[in-house]
């Protein structure tokens, strides 16, 4: 109520803003209600804090946060995790902590951490990172006095309570949960055509349906969104399209027309980490944690029969008992078993997504197989196999590509490239791999991958007037990406404004992995081919600033590669 009155007062005091303040209903993520907002989309309120005003009273004040950048100028879900890692490296712990406050607020009031803080995202979340984000920040909080320990633990409790609610009410219930495998999927609710896309984005999909009904695309769109025309096949298409957007990997041929059915290795690795992190937090907090909000607890172990029984006799409620470390350990152990059963491929030595409808793994080779290493759900042997297999498939001159060229398939005018496929590379995939490799004792591999990425970023910055983009073509070492939406963070005149959030963070995080010798080589823009030339790694010690006199054969020049990308060579 206080926030509502605050914004109403702002609207009255500043009429030039033309601010319309709307109070959302309790069930604000009901798909029909969310669709009703599409004609007047708006920003959603986020967390605020009470501060002393100048008159001896209290006033509300917004909690600052970092946006991804470019056209993404609101709070985004998984972008914020990687941005927070960069903030922590830079000592900006309070800023990162504030972003957790916003996520806790979203779970309380919008029932989930939203894809982004706009009305049309109310049904949709994104890859879950809250527990690791919380523990990373908790480890940086001052805890030298009993008062500081109490404050840090109170904050930890609040964040973990929110994560537990999100876990049970979003990720561990159908349709996101597949009761047969016990694994989770990206499967958001929603009605109609996603409104946040460009007007022509779905033209090629809608044309045949418009022709079938003898109307224009605009007329068909309006009739379909209003429910006057029904097309079950189109409904299914948009179920998967919304799922792709929830996955954060929009778009990729990996998920084409099947995303909502896939138990992916990335999502289930993240939820394994949730379970381990919650167990860890409860141990820090004394072995038990009471919950404060009332909601259904998902049955354990998850199964079709368990949900049928709960639907008949009632779900266990969150206020009925305290959470214990032991139950969350059991949840993580069961998920690890299910990951091994459904997602691990012993013959190919790699993790794959599992199609819960087809009952089989899909063949797409994805770099998110490395997320199992980040989460710690791979055995030592699996980790060794995944690293050996994955590096041979995903490592290129600029770091790690999203998937293999073979998995992506041929590209043509009728089948254009997708931005989360080969040859494109993204900061989240790099950071997750670096951390995963280090976790399993392969620091040298993590350092090599980090150097490749930092070199690509540095040469782009040096040679193209300070550009820091959203993503790269890691094969051509180029920020000139024309797939789908193009690239973000590259639209500037002479001087770049802010770079791009998770790319900025990747640079700061990457610097923490590489050695002093690597930093000096990076400062001189020494290519990975020169730096990692056979037999030369051993001589890159503290007495040598850059490798001098190394052969130039087969060394890639970043400007040549970028120009090739521009010219389409």
Shape: globular
Could you tell me the mean pLDDT?
92
Give the helix tally: 21
Largest sheet composition = 3 strands, antiparallel
Number of strands: 15
Low-confidence residue ranges: 535-555
Topology:
Layout: H1 2-13, H2 31-36, E1 48-52, E2 58-62, H3 77-89, H4 93-110, H5 130-138, H6 146-171, E3 177-178, E4 183-184, H7 203-213, H8 217-226, H9 232-247, E5 262-263, H10 265-284, E6 288-289, H11 304-313, E7 323-324, H12 325-342, E8 344-345, E9 350-351, E10 354-355, E11 360-361, H13 371-375, H14 380-394, E12 395-396, E13 399-400, H15 405-408, E14 424-425, H16 427-439, H17 443-463, E15 472-473, H18 501-511, H19 516-523, H20 528-531, H21 558-567
Antiparallel strand pairs: 1-2, 3-4, 5-10, 6-7, 8-9, 10-11, 12-13, 14-15
Molecular structure report:
- The chain contains 21 helices and 15 strands.
- The protein is globular.
- The longest helix is centred in the N-terminal third of the chain and has 26 residues.
- β8 and β9 form a beta hairpin.
- The strands form 7 sheets. The chain has a 3-stranded antiparallel beta sheet. Strands 1-2 form a two-stranded antiparallel ribbon. Strands 3-4 form a two-stranded antiparallel ribbon.
- α3 runs parallel beside α5, α10 runs antiparallel to α12 and α17 packs across α18.
- By secondary structure, it is mostly helical.
- About 5% of the residues have low confidence.
In short:
The chain is mainly α and about 575 residues long. The protein has 21 helices and 15 strands. A hairpin with a 5-residue loop joins strand 1 and strand 2 (about 60).
């Amino acid at each position: 109520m206080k926030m509502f009155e605050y914004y109403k007062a702002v609207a009255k005091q500043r009429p030039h803003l033309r601010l319309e303040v709307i109070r959302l209903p309790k069930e604000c993520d009901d798909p029909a209600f969310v669709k009703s907002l599409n004609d007047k989309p708006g920003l959603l309120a986020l967390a605020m804090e009470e501060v002393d005003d100048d008159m001896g009273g209290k006033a509300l004040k917004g909690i600052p946060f970092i946006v991804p950048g470019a056209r993404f100028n609101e709070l985004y879900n998984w972008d914020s995790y990687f941005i927070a890692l960069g903030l922590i490296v830079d000592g900006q712990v309070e800023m990162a902590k504030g972003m957790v406050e916003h996520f806790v607020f979203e779970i309380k009031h919008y029932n989930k951490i939203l894809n982004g803080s706009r009305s049309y995202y109310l049904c949709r979340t994104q890859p879950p990172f809250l527990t690791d984000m919380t523990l990373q920040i908790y480890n940086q909080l001052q805890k030298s006095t009993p008062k500081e320990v109490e404050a840090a633990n109170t904050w930890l409790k609040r964040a973990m309570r929110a994560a537990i609610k999100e876990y049970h009410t979003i990720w561990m219930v159908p349709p996101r949960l597949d009761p047969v495998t016990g694994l989770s999927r990206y499967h958001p609710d929603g009605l109609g055509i996603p409104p946040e896309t460009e007007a022509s984005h779905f033209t090629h999909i809608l044309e045949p349906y418009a022709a079938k009904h003898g109307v224009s695309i605009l007329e068909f769109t309006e009739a379909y969104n209003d429910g006057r025309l029904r097309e079950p096949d189109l409904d299914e298409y948009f179920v998967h399209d919304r799922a792709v957007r929830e996955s954060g990997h929009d778009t990729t041929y990996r998920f084409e027309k099947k995303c909502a059915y896939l138990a992916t290795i990335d999502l289930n690795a993240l939820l394994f980490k949730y379970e381990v992190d919650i167990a860890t937090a409860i141990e820090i907090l004394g072995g038990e944690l009471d919950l404060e909000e009332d909601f259904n607890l998902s049955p354990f172990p998850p199964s079709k029969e368990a949900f049928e029984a709960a639907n008949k006799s009632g779900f266990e409620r969150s206020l009925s008992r305290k959470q214990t470390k032991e139950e969350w350990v059991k949840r993580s152990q069961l998920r690890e078993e299910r990951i091994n059963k459904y997602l691990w491929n012993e013959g190919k030595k790699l993790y794959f997504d599992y199609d819960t409808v087809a009952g089989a793994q899909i063949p797409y080779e994805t770099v998110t197989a490395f997320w199992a290493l980040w989460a710690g759900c791979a055995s030592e042997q699996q980790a060794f196999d995944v690293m050996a297999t994955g590096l041979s498939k995903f490592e290129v001159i600029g770091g790690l590509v999203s998937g293999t060229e073979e998995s992506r398939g041929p590209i043509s005018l009728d089948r254009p490239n997708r931005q989360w496929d080969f040859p494109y590379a993204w900061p989240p995939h790099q950071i997750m791999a670096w951390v995963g490799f280090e976790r399993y004792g392969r620091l040298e591999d993590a350092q090599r991958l980090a150097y490749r990425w930092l070199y690509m970023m540095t040469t782009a910055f040096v040679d193209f007037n300070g550009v820091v983009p959203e993503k790269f073509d890691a094969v051509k070492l180029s920020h000139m990406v024309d797939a789908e939406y193009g690239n973000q963070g590259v639209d500037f005149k002479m001087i770049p404004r802010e770079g791009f959030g998770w790319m900025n963070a990747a640079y700061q995080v990457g610097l923490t992995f590489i050695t002093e010798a690597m930093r000096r080589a990076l400062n001189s823009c020494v290519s990975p081919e020169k730096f990692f030339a056979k037999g030369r790694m051993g001589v890159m010690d503290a007495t040598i600033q850059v490798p001098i006199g190394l052969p130039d054969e087969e060394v890639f020049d970043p400007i040549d590669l970028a120009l090739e990308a521009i010219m389409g060579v």
